[in-house]
C-alpha cells in the first residue's frame, strides 16, 4: 500500500541529521544556559495548557528558548494530539493548507498524521484545504517535530500530529483557521494542544528588536489579534508567523478563561555575541483556567 511520507527538508541545516547527535543536542537545549534548566518544571505541574507560541530557527539559535515551552508541555501533561500552525515562507501552498498524507519523517522516526483532526479541520471548509506543496520545503513546522518526538519518547507517549501551513496571513484567514481549530477543541478537549510557530523581529539591533517586539508581546499578552496585526503593519514588527499567532489568539478568546505567560524572550546575539543584527525569539504559554 502506497503511503505519503514527507521527508525532512532542513535536517542537517536547522538541526542535526544523525539520530544520536540530534538527541544529544535536544538534551542540551533543556539543560543549557538559556534553557529551562531541566525537562520537568515543578510550577507547571497540575496546570492545563491550551497552546504554545514557539520559535523555529536553527536549534543553536532558538532551541533553548523553545525548550521552555516544551518543558511546560511535558510538565503539565502531554496530549496525544498536537496541531502545529506555521507560516509558509516560500508561498508554495494555498491560503491555508492541511497536510493530507500519512506521516512526516525526521531522524527520530516517523510522526503519524492525525487523520481525525485533519478531517475535522477540512470539514470546517473556509480557507483550509488539503495540500502538500506548502509543507514540502517549509521549516517552521518541521523544526518543532524532533523535540516533540523526543519528549513524547521520554514518556512512552503516543504522538499524533497535524500540520497546518498558512500562506496568507491576514486577519480574516487567521480568524477562519481559529474557527476550525475551535471545532477540534470542542471535539477533543483534553486530548489536544495547539502550537503557533513564529520567530519575532528580524535583522535589527537587539535593542531595536526588543522595542518592536514589545508591541507584539503586549498584544499577545492581551489576547488581541488585531493589536498583533497593528504591531506588524504599523509598528515595525517583522515576526514571520503573525498569522498562526493571531489564529491561536482568536482560539484562546473562543475558548475563554486563558492566561498568557511569556516563558522566555531572547535573540540570536545571545549565541553569536553580535547584538548589532539579531533575530528575536519567544516561547509563550497559553494556560487554561486564567
Architecture overview:
This protein is an alpha/beta fold. It has one domain (about 5-290): 3-Layer(aba) Sandwich (Protocatechuate 4,5-dioxygenase, Chain B). It contains ten helices and twelve strands. Strands 2, 3, 4, 7, 8, 9, 10, 11 and 12 form a nine-stranded mixed sheet that branches. A hairpin with a 2-residue loop joins strand 5 and strand 6. It is globular, with a radius of gyration of 17 Å. The N and C termini lie far apart (about 45 Å).
User: Which value, in Å, is the CA radius of gyration?
Assistant: 17 Å
CATH superfamily: LigB-like
CATH topology: Protocatechuate 4,5-dioxygenase, Chain B
Fraction in beta strands = 15-25%
- Sheet having the most strands: 9 strands, mixed
Tell me roughly what share of residues is in helical segments. 40-55%
Structural class estimated from helices and strands: alpha/beta
Query: Roughly what is the average pLDDT, rounded to an integer?
Result: 96
CATH architecture: 3-Layer(aba) Sandwich
Poorly predicted runs of 5 or more residues: none
Please report the number of helical segments: 10
Rounded to the nearest angstrom, the distance between the terminal CA atoms is: 47 Å
Estimate the global geometry from the Cα principal axes: globular
What is the CATH class designation?
Alpha Beta
The domain tally reads: 1
DSSP, total strands: 12
- H/E series, N to C? EHEHEEEEHEHHEHEEHHHEHE
Amino acid at each position: 500500500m502506497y503511503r505519503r511520507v514527507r521527508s525532512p527538508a532542513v535536517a542537517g541545516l536547522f538541526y542535526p541529521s544523525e539520530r544520536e547527535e540530534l538527541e544529544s543536542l535536544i538534551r542540551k537545549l533543556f539543560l543549557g544556559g538559556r534553557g529551562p534548566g531541566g525537562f520537568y518544571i515543578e510550577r507547571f505541574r497540575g496546570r492545563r495548557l491550551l497552546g504554545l507560541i514557539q520559535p523555529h530557527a536553527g536549534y543553536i539559535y532558538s532551541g533553548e528558548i523553545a525548550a521552555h515551552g516544551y518543558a511546560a508541555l511535558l510538565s503539565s501533561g502531554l496530549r496525544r494530539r498536537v496541531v502545529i500552525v506555521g507560516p509558509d515562507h516560500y508561498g508554495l501552498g494555498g491560503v491555508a493548507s492541511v497536510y493530507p498524507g500519512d506521516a512526516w519523517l525526521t531522524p527520530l522516526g516517523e510522526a503519524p498524521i492525525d487523520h481525525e483532526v485533519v478531517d475535522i479541520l477540512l470539514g470546517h471548509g473556509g480557507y483550509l484545504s488539503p495540500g502538500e506543496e506548502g509543507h514540502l520545503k517549509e521549516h517552521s513546522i518541521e523544526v518543532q517535530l524532533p523535540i516533540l518526538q523526543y519528549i513524547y519518547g521520554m514518556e512512552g507517549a503516543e504522538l499524533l500530529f497535524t500540520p497546518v501551513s498558512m500562506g496568507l496571513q491576514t486577519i480574516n484567514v487567521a480568524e477562519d483557521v481559529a474557527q476550525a481549530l475551535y471545532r477540534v477543541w470542542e471535539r477533543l478537549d483534553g486530548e489536544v494542544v495547539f502550537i503557533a510557530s513564529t520567530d519575532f523581529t528580524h535583522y535589527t539591533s537587539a535593542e531595536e528588536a526588543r522595542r518592536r517586539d514589545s508591541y507584539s508581546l503586549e498584544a499577545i499578552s492581551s489576547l488581541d489579534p488585531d493589536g498583533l496585526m497593528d504591531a506588524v503593519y504599523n509598528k515595525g514588527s517583522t515576526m514571520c508567523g503573525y498569522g498562526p499567532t493571531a489564529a491561536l489568539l482568536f482560539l484562546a478568546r473562543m475558548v475563554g478563561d486563558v492566561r498568557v505567560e511569556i516563558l522566555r524572550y531572547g535573540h540570536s546575539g545571545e549565541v553569536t555575541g553580535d547584538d548589532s543584527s539579531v533575530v528575536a525569539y519567544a516561547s509563550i504559554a497559553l494556560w487554561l483556567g486564567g
